[in-house]
């Protein structure tokens, strides 16, 4: 019973941490990266996860009085035993 409880707690912890954004990471002069795993079950692309990444990047640029410009987008669809994710490289112009 203890093993089952520990397994459940670890699984929930992994799923919760998988949902966390990387936050905005500087890649150099006015080039940034942000990524987020989608912790929700299912198959395909999570539009909610994708929207959250874009909102966070947009808020970062707006805090500088600038607008978001996407340089590159990578979206991985969820599949059995694999979480989906959204990653973007962007500039604030």
From TrEMBL:
Cleaved signal peptide residues: 1-20
Keyword Signal in annotation: yes
Highest taxon in the source lineage: Bacteria
Keywords in alphabetical order: Signal
Protein name as catalogued: Lipoprotein
Organism: Pseudidiomarina donghaiensis
């Amino acid at each position: 019973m203890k093993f089952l409880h520990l397994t459940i707690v670890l699984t929930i912890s992994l799923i919760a941490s998988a949902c966390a954004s990387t936050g905005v990471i500087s890649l150099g002069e006015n080039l940034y990266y942000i990524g987020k795993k989608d912790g929700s079950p299912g198959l395909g692309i999570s539009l909610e996860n994708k929207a959250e990444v874009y909102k966070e990047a947009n808020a970062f640029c707006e805090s500088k009085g600038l607008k978001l410009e996407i340089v590159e987008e990578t979206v991985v669809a969820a599949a059995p035993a694999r979480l989906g994710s959204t990653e973007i490289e962007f500039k604030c112009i």
